[in-house]
Write a structure and sequence with these properties.
The complex is a heterodimer of chains A (302) and B (225). By secondary structure, chain A is of the alpha+beta class. Chain A is built from ten helices and four strands.
Chain lengths: 302, 225
């Protein structure tokens, strides 16, 4: 992208005279600004969505990946035996960093939100919970562990969260990809519309092109006049669209931590820098589209 | 400068110009004459590469125009001043900017050439109108502006297509004086016109050759002119 950007900046700096030779064409120019602005606005949201779902996927993976729970349901006299058996199995299972049986108080605390603090736990046949933490390597063989548990402690059930966490992480990853794909599509649509606007401008200025040819203008000179104008317009429009998009994202109502899915659709920390790339990227896209359209048209117009 | 070698030009409607062989030598003054529709404009376009011969060849500055790419044609055109039949301008620019257009096109530094533009504009007698837009100019003023634009890159060759087409006799003489002056400075001049009086007037001032298009061929006109 860097040489491209150099070309763009070169075209923007190129002599103003080349820019003046094409009469100011209000309509196509405004159309270009508007298109770039609208597309940049959409791109900000696609980017926000993509970044947020990326963060979400990471967070789910981090918090869920390394913990699992074993639930032991058995008659009162069996519970202690099976808990000891399970802990022994876990001791010798590779990929497990630590394992710990929850105390009655901890289990009571877990249930309190659902049944209130005064639950007579002793009267209920509660399963014993064992919390285990995987090693960061993540080389725990859950299927193997499940088989061994079935053999040693028939009342033990391994709940490793993967059953519901994997689809969530996959969905979040997919969402991030969709966001990125949307940005690519948005830039593509912008290129297409700017190409059409350029073609309209070229057709409207056939007479100007003829005069320029008469006095010895090379294709690159004629192209520069159009390219410079459209790139500038796209840059200005995209800057406006990006600003509005950022404003809209900032003004999104804040969501308290409980609403986990939508938390942080906004930009955080350095990710604020990403949307700032939208205007220059739009200018690069406009530059490429206009240049290709112009040189193509001039090639046929010889 | 420009050499036609058995060149011909045909289009959908048939052959317009056939079997042309002649040379335009440096410093020469040529008239190109013939009835309307005989192919004068077409022949001039062959000279500056706007059209290519459909048979034979046209060499400009020793380059066969058929072998030049678009950029090279453009470069060649910068060395030939063309006063177009309906002298096309960019109507949104001022007269001075139109005259300066070839400078911008050829990548010259505009700031350094501003004095040249002003000189040229006053040489063709348009100092008062240099900030006017072309549509506001009279026919004669447009012709002189077109001449100034054709001269700004000090080309060796000047091709003028009916430069006196829509101006009065007084103005025609004024334009011709400018062209004769340029010829005396060593420029090669070709003027397409069907006005025989004009040709006679110039013949008395400088040595000229008259090329006449008749029956699709170019002949050197005799002493009858
Ligand atoms: N490419 C072309 N297509 C159609 N007609 C053409 C083409 N080139 C030349 N002509 C015709 O050839 C004739 C000669 O044109 P032109 O060179 O302008 O003559 P002049 O300048 O002597 O009046 C005109 O009738 C014009 O319509
Ligand atoms: Mg003509």
């Amino acid at each position: 992208m860097t040489p491209r950007l150099g070309l763009v900046l070169g075209a923007l700096r190129a002599d103003q005279q080349a820019d003046r030779v094409v009469p100011p064409s209000g309509f196509t120019a405004q159309l270009t600004s508007f298109t770039a602005g609208a597309m940049a606005f959409l791109a900000v949201f696609a980017l926000a969505l993509s970044l947020a779902s990326g963060r979400l996927a990471e967070r789910w993976e981090a918090t869920l990946k390394d913990t699992a729970t074993i639930r032991i349901s058995a008659s009162d006299d069996q519970i202690a035996v099976q808990t000891a058996a399970v802990l022994a199995v876990l001791e010798t299972t590779p990929g497990i960093a630590s394992a710990r049986a929850l105390s009655m108080d901890e289990q009571r605390a877990l249930l309190a939100p659902w049944f209130g603090p005064d639950l007579p736990l002793d009267a209920l046949p509660l399963p014993q919970l064992i919390e285990l933490t995987e090693t960061p390597l993540g080389d725990l063989d859950t299927e193997g562990l499940r088989l061994r548990l079935a053999a040693e402690a028939p009342g033990a059930v391994l709940d490793d969260h993967t059953r519901w966490r994997e689809p969530l992480v996959r969905a979040a990853d997919r969402l991030r990809l969709l966001g990125l794909a949307s940005i690519v599509l948005i830039l593509g649509a912008m290129a297409a519309m700017i190409t059409l606007a350029t073609q309209a401008a070229l057709a409207a200025n056939a007479q100007v092109i003829e005069v320029l040819r008469l006095v010895g203008a090379q294709d690159s000179y004629i192209a520069r006049a159009f390219v410079r104008r459209f790139s500038l317009r796209a840059l200005i429009g995209a800057a406006a669209g990006t600003s509005l998009g950022l404003l809209a994202v900032t003004l999104l109502p804040g969501v308290e931590p409980a609403g986990a899915f939508l938390t942080g659709l906004g930009f955080q920390g350095v990710t604020w820098l990403w949307p700032l790339m939208i205007p220059p990227l739009s200018a690069v896209v406009a530059f490429g589209a206009t240049r290709a359209a112009t040189l193509h048209a001039l090639g046929r117009l010889s | 400068m420009i050499t036609f070698n058995e060149a011909a030009y045909s289009y959908g409607g048939g052959e317009l110009l056939a079997d042309m062989s002649f040379r335009l030598l440096p410093g020469s003054f040529h008239f190109l004459t013939g009835p309307s529709g005989s192919g004068k404009t077409t022949l001039l376009k062959l000279c500056y590469g706007a059209l290519l011969p459909t048979a034979g060849s046209v060499a400009v500055f020793d380059n066969d125009t058929r072998l030049l790419d678009r950029d090279a044609i453009a470069k060649t055109r910068q060395r030939i001043g063309v006063v177009h039949q309906d002298c096309q301008f960019l109507d949104h620019l001022t007269l001075a900017e139109n005259v300066a257009l070839p400078l911008s096109v050829s990548g010259r530094n505009m700031a350094e050439e501003l004095a040249n533009v002003a000189d040229l504009v006053s040489w063709v007698g348009l100092s008062g109108q240099q900030f006017s837009r072309p549509p506001a100019l009279s026919g004669g003023e447009r012709q002189r502006a077109a001449l100034a634009r054709a001269l700004i890159l000090s080309p060796d060759v000047i091709l003028a297509d009916e430069p006196t087409g829509n101006v009065d006799w007084e103005m025609s003489l004024r334009l011709l004086r400018l062209l004769v002056e340029l010829n005396k400075m060593g420029k090669t001049i070709v003027i397409a016109t069907h006005d025989l009086n004009l040709i006679r007037t110039v013949k008395s001032q400088v040595p000229t050759r008259v090329l006449r298009i008749a029956k699709r061929r170019v002949q050197l006109a005799g002493a009858d002119l």
